[in-house]
Amino acid sequence: MTPAGAPGTGRGEAGRQPPAGFGVEELVVAYHGRTAVAGVTLEVARGGVTGVVGGDGAGKTTVLRALAGAVRPASGRVRRPPARRIGYVSAGPGVYRDLTVDENLAFAGAAYGLRGRALAERAGRLLDRTGLAAARDRLGGQLSGGMRQKLALAMAMLHEPELLVLDEPTTGVDPVSRAELWRLVAHAAAAGAAVVVATTYLDEAERTGWVLVLDQGRPLVAGTPAAIVDGIPGAVLDASARPDRGAAWRRGARWRVWSPDGSATPGASVVAHDLEDAVVVAALAARARAAREKEAAA
Hints:
There is one protein chain. The protein is α/β, with parallel strands linked by helices. The protein is 33% helix and 26% strand. The protein contains eight helices and 13 strands. The longest helix has 23 residues, at 275-297. Residues 1-16 have low confidence and may be disordered.
């Protein structure tokens, strides 16, 4: 079996591409002469949630900022709606700490031309949906981390954008608030928005309809979560101690081992793998392939 999406293509082989909406094609972004992302293609379907996954420095924020219009690509194509039809939550603080919840929403609404009754009705619905109605007079700086993130998301959704871009909206948030934030994300997609979410949490990526995994600024694998898992090459084994041979990584108190040809390893047994295992294997396979190519070129 081959991985679901050849490294460097950003397109899944084992899954179906989502319906066209917005996105980037062969995106290249450079900062001060250094290439941050290269060769990235991503479709963000209307009415669905697309995930962008990767570790720190993988290029997630750069891709999202390019899609939102916050950075200019060196090359490639970006398809997005007009700026007033985009909602964006950055990875940093998304609310004004010296304004109340109501004032934050009013400020965001005014930026998109919302005032009066229309603003009050939309803000009221979002406050109820986020559970922030009782905190509408509290300053942003007095809110918990989860409440601030919900407020930031409400501000981004206030003008009912066509494209909703969320950069790690649940990082550092407690599990209950994470679940509540994902309900808001799902609601936005159900209402017809094209939603793209960057995350380091692979359990969150499993909730999306399409996933792009980045590694050092380049596409590693892409497809539906199920297609990526089903397309894993070889087999994943489980062991209580690190085996003497084979590529291995920690999963809780146990070890996972990748067997490229599916053969058994002493002290390990085949285990049902998930998206986390599939992403690790895709990275290992890409590095093994790069090492072979380097050796062949020497």
